[in-house]
Write a structure and sequence with these properties.
CATH architecture of the largest domain: 2-Layer Sandwich
Largest sheet: 9 strands, mixed
Mean pLDDT: 90
Keywords: Isomerase, RNA-binding
Number of domains: 3
CATH topology of the largest domain: Alpha-Beta Plaits
Protein name: Pseudouridine synthase
Order of helices and strands: EHHEEEEEEEEHEHEEEEHEEEH
EC number: 5.4.99.-
Low-confidence stretches: none
Family: Belongs to the pseudouridine synthase RsuA family.
Pfam family, one: S4
Radius of gyration: 20 Å
Shape: elongated
């Protein structure tokens, strides 16, 4: 039985299917000793596949929840030698990678896995996973600001989807706001507040779907429980339909 090369790579935990496609088209993948750049390439179990000269092998899928601290890169490696989220899970033997990303100066909940299919479903824009952030912003957030957050704000030439927003507290010249969105645009939360002239001073992702940070401190991580993995897969499948 033959399957598409990028699908086999994703199942092997090399990367998500979309990231695997980039590895293929940029010449990082060899099949039976030859560089392959065609995304339609089919392979079988008898083919030898190497990524940057490292043979791939099918690993047991693993799933981890990390409380990412500030000052850590959401990546597998960093050319500037900064600490990455994978460095925080050095005891995990499998080749894992983050699902989506959090900015260097943003803390909070991050998933890591070697399940490329699930990663692809959870990070694809159409699947709309709800994520709740708590932001400390400059200035006093007004009722009008909250209305705009809830109904949508134009950033990068396009209006954001409706969101849930609540002021937790205000003091002096700053506000703490909880914001729940289901989009995944680059720096979206920061840009939404910046559009309202309330620059973000501190940001944390407190939940991802039904998952939260209960019992964890920055830098802590835990494996997902079997029922949590099943719920994530079900959530992805429900949104796929």
């Amino acid at each position: 039985m033959s399957e598409r090369l990028q699908k086999v790579m994703a199942h092997a935990g090399v990367a998500s299917r979309r990231k695997a496609e980039t590895l293929i088209t940029t010449g990082h993948v060899k099949v039976n000793g030859k560089v392959v750049k065609e995304l339609g390439t089919k392979v079988t179990a008898n083919d030898e596949i190497k990524v940057d000269e490292v043979p791939i092998s099918k690993e047991t899928p693993v799933y981890y929840l990390l409380y990412k601290p500030r000052g850590v890169i959401t990546a597998v490696s960093d050319d500037k030698h900064r600490k990455t989220v994978v460095d925080l899970l050095k005891e995990v033997p499998e080749r894992i990678y983050p699902v989506g990303r959090l900015d260097y100066d943003t803390s909070g909940l991050l998933l890591l896995t070697n399940d490329g299919e699930l990663d692809n479903h959870l990070t694809h824009p159409k699947y709309e996973v709800e994520k709740t952030y708590v932001a400390k912003v400059k200035g006093i957030v007004t009722n009008d600001d909250m209305k705009q957050l809830r109904t949508g704000i134009r950033i990068d030439g396009r209006k954001t989807a409706s969101a849930k927003a609540n002021v937790i507290r205000t003091n002096n010249n700053s506000s703490i706001v909880a914001l729940t969105i289901h989009e995944g645009r680059n720096h979206q939360v920061k840009k939404m507040f910046m559009a309202l002239n309330h620059p973000v001073e501190k940001l944390s992702r407190e939940s991802y779907g039904f998952l939260n940070l209960d019992g964890l401190q920055p830098g802590d991580y835990r494996p997902l429980k079997p029922h949590e993995v099943e719920e994530l897969k079900k959530m992805a499948q429900d949104r796929k339909r």
